[in-house]
């Protein structure tokens, strides 16, 4: 069986005095740099919509990177990139705030393409919840989500939260062997489709650890600002 695809997801805020430079760094350097790593399929940056539909205290920036395999997030090319950050990157990292970086494997993925809006939220999970999630995935829940109006793609990733600068190989192995967090990503044509999904459909059909009222969940609805293909 082919190895599952991987996901690198980063939620973060930035100190106000560095905000404009932060976006320039993401778009001009960081996204293209990551998309050029072996095994990376894309690199995308999103901005939080300022509305009431939020969970916890979601950071204002979300970035997503799809990879050919989970192993790509512990492969030499990515390890080398993490160990040799650019001068611009190193100058900005001290200004990151409220950062959550997730290394994960795609447990369920349905639909094709990318949407202009994304629901992106994560929550802690235990072993029993992981087993329950896999059961719902086997029952076709991601396919069901994609049948809703305006939904382009639905994904569920299982992995670990990892600190900036931490061991990439260890993080990748932990994500594979003992995931501690789940992330639900739903892409749509627009944010109205995601609002409807959350208020009507997902209220009764959502994955339990990522339900609208799940404890410890963080996330919101984000709009695409820049995308780079490998």
Note down, in words, how this protein is organized.
With 230 residues, the chain is α+β, with helices and mostly antiparallel strands. The chain has a single domain (6-229), classed as Alpha-Beta Plaits (2-Layer Sandwich). It contains seven helices and eight strands. It has helices spanning 19-35, 76-83, 87-92, 127-138, 141-146, 168-177, 191-205, and strands spanning 6-14, 42-48, 61-67, 96-111, 117-124, 151-161, 181-188, 218-229. It is globular and about 50 Å long.
Which short descriptors sum up this protein?
single chain, 230 residues, alpha+beta, Alpha-Beta Plaits, eight-stranded antiparallel β-barrel, 8 strands
**Major sheet size, sense and barrel closure:** 8 strands, antiparallel, barrel
Radius of gyration: 17 Å
The H-and-E topology, N to C, reads as: EHEEHHEEHHEHEHE
Work out the number of β strands.
8
pLDDT averaged over residues: 93
User: What does the overall shape look like?
Assistant: globular
CATH topology: Alpha-Beta Plaits
